[in-house]
Amino acid sequence: MALKYTFRGGSHVREYKNTSACPITHMHAPAVVSIPLSQHIGAPARPTVAVGDRVLVGQVIGEIAQGLGCPVHASVSGKVVAIESRNNSFGIPVQRIRIENDGLDEIHPEVRPFGKPLSETSPQEIVEIIRTAGISGMGGATFPTHAKLSGAIGKVDTVIINCAECEPFITANHRLMLEHPEDILGGIDALLHALGLHDVTLAVEDNKMDAVEALRRAIAARTPAAQAVRATVAVMKTKYPQGDERQIVYALTGKEIPAGKLPADVGCIIFNAETCAAVNRAFYEGMPLRRRIVTVDGDCIAHPGNVLAPIGTSYADLAAFCGGWIKTPAKIVNGGPMMGAAQWDVNDVVTKGTSAVLYLSEEFIRPTISDGEAAACIHCGRCAQHCPMHLMPLELAKYGREHALDDALRYDVMSCVECGTCTYNCPAGVEIVQYIRAAKGLLRARAAAEKAKAAQKASNGEGSHHG
Ligand code: SF4
Ligand code: SF4
């Protein structure tokens, strides 16, 4: 049997890939979309339209004044009926632009192909095309793609396309690889051209061998010009969290990314498969990121599937498109069950980072054995055995629960990638990753407060010096 790439630690989780045979279906845009101005890592966009304006598909409705971020575009044509502040799932207020869809799907005149062949396009032009298309990492990380790319030019020599899709339930990338492999390859061409590189590895888990074959067929069928790019498909062992950047880099190159560092620091850059398809669309059609593939699943949904949904579609409209609920969900998850975020409002919406929306019932959600009390560790050691970052999750959970932040730091809590493998494997039902997330949040807040205090002190000192 051929060698398959893998990493140390991790876990075999139940896959629930119920929708892997469900083709991507185009959803009619709903009557109303509500588009958040913060869907990416970095500063929120500022609205560039006003209530009452008519907007067209692909028109910029939010722009970044300065700093890291991505512009936001209209996903339908219609009338802006509100610019409102709504809390996201973390309770943070985010501005949203509500557009009443006029059903005409009228495209903005500025949406047009770049016009020059790729070979005559400069790296900076590619970065700018990606920036203006508002593309951020579509695997869930939502880091602005133009910033990742421009920071890597001249710095990296290894390009990896993350097609692992290791989270249970999610099959959006799987369907994209089967149905539109050439879109992924077209985006890769543009990204490699900007980086001045010719080799790329597409990393696919071995539970998607049909996708491996589809990609290999598409690579073999490429025109001689496109064959300047040497693309290889690497078959990865199916294991969670294979899709984590650190695990992919280790599995394929043997390089470990030190804590606090990025893949680029070891010469690697990783793009998600659907991000590549979005780059392809931006370059060849000029269409910004206005919709994405969402796996809609969970035991509450009548007809699970893969839906090409406009950004800003509510979870209620998405569920209705999939036949509605057959029972009332106790929890809606944006993303996979391991790393996704629980949502409490059916009016929350699909964003650029939404690879799945899961509607899960009370019976489905694993009951803890603690009956409402915090579950107690029985010191079995399984969490440590499976942690892909080789941490001591039980200690981290303990210190997180006790808010013993310095102890948590001593046990390297900031290296946790929040993959949830420890929680998944804990027989006692300890919500390990939740305690870890809380500790990391408190540590970040502490660091920010210390930094602000130091800046204040410095400016006071400066003031008194000059005074
Ligand atoms: S401690 Fe962090 S990195 Fe390790 S298994 Fe738990 S969530 Fe994943
Ligand atoms: S897996 Fe759960 S019970 Fe076992 S050591 Fe870790 S926290 Fe304790």
Which terms would index this structure?
single chain, Rossmann fold, 467 residues, alpha/beta, binds iron/sulfur cluster, six-stranded mixed sheet
Distance between the ends: 76 Å
The top-level CATH class of the domain at 118-284 is Alpha Beta
In N-to-C order, the SSE pattern is: EEEEEEEEHHEHHEHEHEHEEHEEEHHHHH
Globally, the shape reads globular
Major β-sheet profile: 6 strands, mixed
Compact description:
With 467 residues, the protein is α/β, with parallel strands linked by helices.
What can you see in these coordinates?
The protein is an alpha/beta fold. Among the domains are: 118-284, Rossmann fold (3-Layer(aba) Sandwich); 382-446, no CATH class. It has 13 helices and 17 strands. It has helices at 123-132, 145-152, 172-179, 181-195, 209-220, 245-253, 273-284, 315-321, 382-386, 393-402, 405-410, 421-425, 432-466; strands at residues 24-26, 32-36, 46-47, 54-55, 60-63, 72-73, 78-87, 93-101, 158-163, 199-205, 230-236, 268-272, 291-297, 305-310, 331-334, 341-343, 356-360. The protein starts with 23 loop residues before the first strand and ends with a helix. Bound molecules: iron/sulfur cluster (2 copies). One iron/sulfur cluster (SF4) is lined by residues 387-389, 391, 393, 396, 416-422, 432-433, 436.
Task: List the SSEs and their pairings.
Layout: E1 24-26, E2 32-36, E3 46-47, E4 54-55, E5 60-63, E6 72-73, E7 78-87, E8 93-101, H1 123-132, H2 145-152, E9 158-163, H3 172-179, H4 181-195, E10 199-205, H5 209-220, E11 230-236, H6 245-253, E12 268-272, H7 273-284, E13 291-297, E14 305-310, H8 315-321, E15 331-334, E16 341-343, E17 356-360, H9 382-386, H10 393-402, H11 405-410, H12 421-425, H13 432-466
Parallel strand pairs: 1-14, 9-10, 9-12, 10-11, 13-17
Antiparallel strand pairs: 2-8, 3-5, 4-7, 5-6, 7-8, 13-14, 15-16, 15-17
Helix pairs in contact: 1-2, 1-4, 3-5, 4-7, 10-13
Bound molecules: iron/sulfur cluster (2 copies).
One iron/sulfur cluster binds at residues 387-389, 391, 393, 396, 416-422, 432-433, 436.
